[in-house]
Each structure stands twice: as C-alpha cells, then as structure tokens.
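Page 37, continued from 36.
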C-alpha cells in the first residue's frame, strides 16, 4: 500500500511520542550577544534536549585549569577563536553522549566553514541529521550594548544585563544564588574584535546553510519572550 505524506507525518509523530519527545537537532547562528545562549537555554528546557555551548565548555575547562583550558584561555581572553581541531574534537565527543539521543542545540558551534564541513561529515557518518539552523539577526551596535552590560552566572550559565535584565539582587544569580561576573571578553575592545572575527569567519555560514535549505532567520531585536515564541512556532512546526 502506498504511504502518502499525511500518513507519514502521523507515523513520525507516533514514533516521537513513543520515544518520549521530538528529536530535534538544531544549530544557532548569530553574532556574539545576539541572544543565542539565552534562547538555547530556554529551548533546551522546553524541548528537553541539551544545550551544547562550546563557549561554556571552554570556560569550564579554563576554570578547572585543565590542559584544554590553559590552551584555550589565551585565545578566549583576546576574543580570538580556539583552533578548529580542538573544537571539533569537543563536539565529536559531546554529541554521542546519551543525553543527546533525542536531539541537541548547538550554541556557538560551528563558527568556521572548516568546522561546518567537518560537522557535516560527522553527522553523516553517525546518521544524525540536522533539522534546522536558526540565525538571530541583530545590529552591531545592539550587540555592543548588550555585551558590555552582560553579567553571567558561573554556576548555572544564566545571563543577566545591568540595564535590560538585572538580577533581583545586585551581583547575585536570581536562579541559583551564584556570584555574577562580567566576562573579560565582554570588554568593549574585545567585543569589537569578536564582532570583526564573526563577520569575517562565521557570517559566511549563513550562506552555507541557506544553500543546504536549512536556514531560518529570526529577528533578534525583539524581546526575549517574543523571540522565544517565534522559535517555538518554528520548531513545533517541524
Ligand atoms: P561564546 O561563549 O560562544 O561567545 O565563546 C567564547 C569564546 O570561546 C570565543 O570567543 C572563542 O574564543 C571560544 N569559542 C567558543 N566556541 C568556539 C568555536 N566553535 N570555535 C572557536 N572558538 C570558540
């Protein structure tokens, strides 16, 4: 008996329910400060899939003074990219962990064409297709304002902003009580350098994924809540 598209959709949704939720594998693109981390964290809770932030993995390695952390710190403090090989190795190990079985959200990876091509080969080999690439569109000036006022909790990774989203108590994470800090790479001169690197090295990925038919561009200048709603609509329609 031939299977039409409608019955295929029903079948897919049945399989997802049986497996305890949608399998969603997505990539966030956008300049530093576009809100990728904030949205990825909310989507992670909503869909029950892990947020994989290469920046957070590296910051943890720096805090623990591991070999990786010592090597990476030099680049991170200057706002430069850590080498492709190191990052690809981190992702290769991470996406095969059991919590990624129902999907994952990549936040901060890939950042170069070399990383994207290598990731394509990786997911093809492991048969774990990417569903969508979400690109958050914001202006450079907005990014500078957002990052220069950003505060981060080292314990739970939640972000705040001195002006737009202050914590309930000054300097203290409203979620877990952690002591908030201002990232050294959020100083204005470093932010400008990160933006330059983004333009030259990461922005070409927008065209790369557009060509593959995976790209969805979202206006990143609206409120956190409104962007989140739009993202959920896109993802629930998949
Ligand atoms: P983020 O928290 O995503 O802004 O990342 C902080 C820093 O970690 C970046 O400025 C880079 O130095 C490094 N980093 C994070 N992800 C990558 C990546 N995919 N490729 C190279 N370096 C990265």
């Amino acid at each position: 008996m031939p299977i039409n598209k409608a019955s295929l959709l029903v079948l897919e949704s049945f399989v997802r329910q049986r497996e305890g939720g949608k399998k969603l594998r997505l990539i966030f693109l956008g300049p530093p400060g576009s809100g990728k981390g904030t949205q990825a964290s909310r989507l992670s809770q909503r869909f029950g899939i892990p947020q994989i932030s290469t920046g957070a993995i590296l910051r943890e390695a720096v805090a623990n003074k591991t070999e990786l952390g010592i090597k990476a710190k030099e680049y991170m403090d200057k706002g430069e990219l850590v080498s492709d090989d190191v990052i690809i190795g981190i992702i290769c190990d991470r996406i095969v962990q059991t919590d990624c079985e129902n999907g994952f959200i990549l936040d901060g990876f890939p950042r170069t064409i070399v990383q994207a091509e290598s990731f394509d080969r990786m997911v093809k080999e492991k048969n774990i297709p990417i569903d969508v690439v979400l690109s958050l569109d914001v202006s450079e000036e907005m990014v500078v304002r957002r990052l220069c006022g950003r505060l981060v909790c080292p314990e739970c990774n939640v972000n705040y902003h001195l002006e737009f989203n202050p914590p309930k108590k000054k300097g203290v994470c409203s979620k877990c009580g952690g002591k908030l800090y201002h990232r050294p790479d959020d100083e204005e001169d470093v932010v400008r350098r990160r933006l330059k690197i983004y333009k030259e090295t990461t922005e070409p990925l927008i065209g790369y994924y557009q060509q593959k038919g995976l790209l969805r561009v979202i206006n990143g200048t609206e409120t956190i809540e409104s962007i989140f709603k739009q993202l959920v609509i896109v993802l629930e329609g998949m």
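The radius of gyration is 18 Å. Flag for discussion at group meeting. Residues 32, 54-55, 58, 75-76, 79-82, 87, 108-111, 115, 185, 194 surround adenosine monophosphate (CB under 6 Å).
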